[in-house]
Amino acid sequence: MTEPLVELEHEFSLDIGYDPNRWLELPPRWDTTEWPDISVWARHCAQLFWRAYRLDPGQSGIPFLADTLRRFAEAFAPEPFDTRVLLRVWEPTSMPLQLFTMVKPAQGDCEETLRFLVAAEDPDAVEPPVIEPFRTELLGEGLRSFRYLRQDDAPEVIAAVRYAWRDDEAGADVVLWTATDDTAQVIRAAPDIEELAHTVSVAVWNPEPGDEE
């Protein structure tokens, strides 16, 4: 089938009402004003998180978490305006889980596009993905999928969760997803991901002349 999401001039952004006690948003790569150095951001967040955790980090606690956050930011910090990336952070010594959200202009048949966005017919799935309807007050009726994926170079399978909606009023398709080879981590995060999915909405904006320059 034809790729349903195409690169068009940005007219949308995502609003996400996440709980900052559980989620940490990665700064976008184009935001060089507040965080010119990703290492400064990582250490600042590590210090705040350890302070909120109310345990003594010792000599290695803050550097360890700062290095972890820096590596996640280097790997996943978004470049386009229409993408946001959050980390579900539990204990400061545990590995976070990355969660991606993206909005694009709506394209094609709604049902076909949503099934594409949740990878309902993924040929790399170990078994047929579990596909369920999922409705939120802000985005309406959508789909949720859960599937296991094979890895070519490793024996572990990847657990992947995807949500997708079409916001007819905004004329936009929205997708939210995560994937990791730590299945227990996905299961642990599932209630938080579902709760967060209910807070996602689309903001429409019209660039003024010269904004794109």
Largest sheet, strands/sense/barrel = 7 strands, antiparallel
Strands of the biggest beta sheet: in what spatial order?
Answer: 2-3-4-8-7-6-5
Global outline = globular
* Cα distance spanning the termini: 34 Å
Please report which band the strand proportion falls in: under 5%, 5-15%, 15-25%, 25-35%, 35-45% or over 45%: 25-35%
Number of strands: 9
Structural class comes to: alpha+beta
What's the short story on this structure?
The protein is α+β, with helices and mostly antiparallel strands and about 210 residues long. The protein contains four helices and nine strands.
Task: Give structural notes.
By secondary structure, the protein is an alpha+beta fold. 26% of the residues lie in helices and 30% in strands. It has four helices and nine strands; from the N terminus they run E-E-H-H-E-E-H-E-E-E-E-H-E. The protein has helices at 38-53, 61-76, 110-117, 183-197; strands at residues 12-16, 23-25, 83-88, 97-105, 130-136, 140-149, 158-167, 172-180, 200-204. The strands form two sheets. The chain has a seven-stranded antiparallel sheet with strand order 2-3-4-8-7-6-5, sandwiched between helices. A two-stranded antiparallel sheet has the order 1-9. A hairpin with an 8-residue loop joins strand 3 (83-88) and strand 4. Helix 1 (38-53) packs across helix 2. The longest helix has 16 residues, at 38-53. The protein is globular and about 55 Å long. Residues 1-8 have low confidence and may be disordered.
